[in-house]
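Troubleshooting entry. The earlier prediction with 6-O-phosphono-beta-D-fructofuranose gave an output that would not parse, so I re-checked the input for stray whitespace and re-submitted. Clean input:
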Amino acid sequence: MSSNALYAQSGGVTAVINATACGIIEAARQNGETIDTVYAGKNGIIGVLREQLYNLNLLSDEDVANIKHTPGGAFGSCRFKLKDLESQRKEYERLIEVFKAHNIRYFFYNGGGDSSDTAYKVSQIGEKMGFPVQCIGVPKTIDNDLPITDNCPGFGSVAKYIAVSTIEASLDVKSMAESSTKVFVLEVMGRHAGWIAAAAGVGKQQDSDPPHIILFPEVAFDHEKFMGKVRYSVENYGYCTIVVSEGVQNKEGEFLADAGTTDAFGHKQLGGVAPLIANMIKSELGYKYHWAVSDYLQRSARHIASLTDVEQAYAVGKAAVELAVAGKNAVMPVIVRESNNPYKWSIGTAELKDMANVEKMMPEDYIGEDGMSITEACREYVQPLIAGESYPPYKDGLPCYVSPELTLEKQKLEPFDVK
Ligand code: F6P
């Protein structure tokens, strides 16, 4: 007897999260004898609690294929932390009620570490409430900080955008440096882990190549050493390109720049470290600067997505359905690196409880001895992840991104207050 499935996107979106959605929907359609209707939570888990479920069976095959090359979250995502399961079960119980009302026996939760924790808890409580639900986490985060999986879908495309932008902007600065701008500072995302900042260095072949300095969250900011390196770079190469992670911290472990607000998970909102650093340089060394915060541009740059990333994002979606159909519960498909040269990967399986709430930082041997560069080992790790192009179709000079019309399923339960 077939039952229904629910898909929800969670946390910060990526350029390829919809490729995962496409993988899930297409694989579910191929397994129609097991999975009948696929629903998606409107804006993620918030929509599930409110019983706002999009019926994805109403999407045409063409719509589904088109979301594969569209960035952002096709069904909406959210930053929302379910209350503690032990003390306040209400939200978890509501989820199971919604699942029951719509005969949802498969739950695909597409997110990072926090979402793995939620999916794991849902898998436990369903069983206890007499309505078992197979919960499959599906990896996604540009921060690349999930454990076990070799890399996270979403990272390869951000890495490519940052690597390319670093090279391009540096060519600009280099042309102007004799009489004008000498320093360019690029701020990139990555709250606690420096994977995205590291990606900026993937194209560097010799010391004079940009970026001349990378500031990681894993390495405490050393003012003197930093200024010395900026001066050295300008004096020897004519200019200095700096890539700084938004999460860079001082020796006391405080973020150099936090915007003063926190999200539902208690994460500080970061941003603004680039102008801070640029001003420091201007006032101490007097160099003219430009700075940029790549912000959502890096996370949404589907036009320059990595083919490897698109393929892996699709593959984890497809594998998630296959795991569900095979009867698995509380697991996540992960990416396994088989070899570097040639780059080969496959899909493995991890337990959700091992994925939850663990952040994978850059290993020490990926950070250069000066604490402001990457090693060859890091370059070898990142390089295949940015490989290949997967351009969206274009019309009149613009990518053909889609927002298919979505239909909400009729509600069957009383309204639920989401706080
Ligand atoms: O998805 C992770 C992340 O991109 C972090 O690198 C960044 O700090 C954060 O999300 C920004 O999140 P939001 O869009 O919720 O402000």
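This one parsed fine. The pocket of 6-O-phosphono-beta-D-fructofuranose is lined by residues 11-12, 79, 141-143, 189-191, 246, 263, 269-270, 299 (CB under 6 Å).
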